[in-house]
Amino acid sequence: MTLLSTPGGSLRGTSLVTDGTTVHRFLGIPYAGPASGVNRFRPPVPLESWDGVLDCTAAGPAAPQNPESPAPPGAVPRRWSEDGCLNLNVWVPETGGQALPVMVWIHGGAYLLGANSDAMYDGARLAAAAGAVVVSINYRLGALGFLHLADLLGDGYVDSSNVALLDQLEALRWVRRNIGAFGGDPGNVTIFGESAGAAAIGTLLGMPASEGLFRRAIMQSGTAERFRQPEESARISAAFLDLCGLAPSSAAELLTLPVEQLLAAQKGLEKRFAAQSYAVPLPFQPTVGTPSLPAPPLDAVRNGVNSGVDLLIGTNLNEGSFAVEMRPPSPADPGYPERAAAVLAASGIPAAHAGGYAAALEEVLQREPAGKELLESAIADSLYRQPSNRLLAARRAAGAAGKSFAYLFTWRSPAMGGKLGACHALEIPFVFRHLDAPAAAFLTRGSAPRRLSGAMSGAWAAFARTGSPDTAQLAWPEYGHGRSTMVFDDETRLEADPRGALRAFFEAVSPLPAS
I want to staple 226 with a disulfide (CB 3.0 to 4.6 A). Which of 188, 197, 199, 349 is the partner? Predict the structure, then answer.
C-alpha cells in the first residue's frame, strides 16, 4: 500500500512495477461532489476535504450510460453511478524527481459512453515510459452532461447543456491544486484525448474559463466544431422530454426521475439519430451562446483564446471505416455516392460539389475510388480531418504564440481482413503502450509494430515535457505554412500537406469564415 497526503486529504493507493519502473497508482479519487439530487444538470460542486485516509485502491464508478451496442469483443458493462462518477485516476512513476510533466486524459465515446477505468486507458506504462504523472478523468455523459434546460428550468440551469465540460474544468482545477503532492508540476499540464475526448479539448480551447488550466493539448481524432446553437439544442430537449413521457411544463420532473428512465429515453434518442445518419450519431453536444461557451470554439480560437497553448493534433487515415463496415445494411439505403453526398452535405458541403470531392479523392489515390472508399473518406474528412485542418488554420490566423504540430496515423489494422484500415481509435494502444492488451487484440492481432508505439508515446511524452514532440528518433517541425505532418506507419516519415487535394477542396468550397 502507498500513502499520500494531498491538500484535499490523505490517500491510500497501490504500487506496481511496469517495464522496470515502480508506478504508484491512486484510483477513483473524487474531484467534485455528488452529481445527483439537487446537483443534477448543474455545474459540479467543488469537493470539500475529507477526514481520515481515502481508499483509492479500486477504480471509481463511470458516469451513467447505456451498454455499448454493438459491444466490442470481450467488453463488459461498465459499473456506473450518478453519485460518485466525478472521479479521476493518477499514476505516478517513481523517478526520484519532482515537478514532473502532467498528462490528463479525457476519454472518448461520442459523449455517450466510456470511463477512465477502461483497460485501454490504464496509465501505468505511459507514466513509466514518459516520466510523467498521468491522470484520467470521468465526466458526465449523454443527457446528464448535455441536456439544454435553460428555457425550461430557468437561471439555475443556464449551463446544463455544458456541465460535462464544466466537470472537465473542475477536474483540471483539482489537478492544479493537488498534483504537486504527487510530484507533478501544476504549471506543466497537457490535456490529451481521443474522439469525443479530443472534441471536448477542441471546445475547451475556445472556453475563456479554461485559460491557465493547461499549457498544452493533444487532440487525437478531434474537432473544435462539435456544438449546437441553443435553438437546435432546445428541439432535442423537447424530443427527450417526449421520450420521457413529459410535457414541457413538467420538465422539472427530470430532476427526480430515476436515472434508468433517463437512460431509456436517451437510448430512444440515440436510435432516432442513428436512423438519420450514415456517419456517427451524435445526439448530445455542447451548446454555444451560453455563459460557459459564449462563442463557437473556432471563432474564439481565431480571436486569441488560449493562443499560448501548444497544440499537437491529428487523425487516422480511415476514421470512417467503423461507420461503413459496422452499420447494418438496409434495403432503404441509397448507393455509396449518395450516402457520401449526404455526409458531406451535413458538414456544409452543397450537394452540387459532391462530384468535386470524388475528383479530389481520385487525385489523392491516383485512381477512381470504390463506393465504400468514397463514403469512408467523406466521413473521415467531414468529421475529423478537415476540422483538424481548420483548427490549425484558425490558430495561424490568430497569430497564436503556442506551437502547432500535426500528424496522420496510417498503420492499417489486420482486423476483418484489413477492411478497417487505420481506423478510428486504433492509435490509442500505441500511445498508451498497450499493444498486447486483450482490449487491443481485435485491432492489433499481435502484429502491431512496437517500434511505432515507442515512437508515438515518446513523441507525446516529449511534447508534454517541452512543448515539442521532437525525440532522438523523430525530427518533427512545426506545422507552419508548409503544413509539415508526421505520418505514423511501419516506417514513420514527414510529409508536407498529405492528401492536400482534399484540404484544398474543402477550403475552396467551405472556406474558413473571416473574423
Answer: 199
With helix as H, strand as E and coil as C, how does 159-180 read?
CHHHHHHHHHHHHHHHHHHHHH
Q: Give the tens place of pLDDT for each residue, 362-379.
A: 999 999 999 999 999 999
Is 148 marked active-site? no
Active site residue 434: no
Query: Which run of H or E residues covers position 261?
Result: helix 259-276
pTM above 0.85, yes or no: yes
Which candidate in 160, 195, 292, 382 is catalytic? Answer: 195
The CA–CA distances, whole Å, from 480 to 137, 314, 408 equal: 32, 15, 16
Sequential DSSP letters for 445-469:
TT---HHHHHHHHHHHHHHHHHS--
Which member of 424, 427, 434, 457 is catalytic?
Answer: 424
82-123: per-residue pLDDT in tens?
999 999 999 999 987 779 999 999 999 999 999 999 999 999
Single out the catalytic residue among 225, 319, 373, 427.
319
Cell numbers given for 401:
504564440
Whether 424 sits among the annotated catalytic residues: the reply is yes
Sign of CA dihedral 167, 169, 171, 173: negative
DSSP string, 392-441: HHHHHHHT-SS-EEEEEE-PPB-GGGGTTBSBTTTTHHHHTT-TTSGGGH
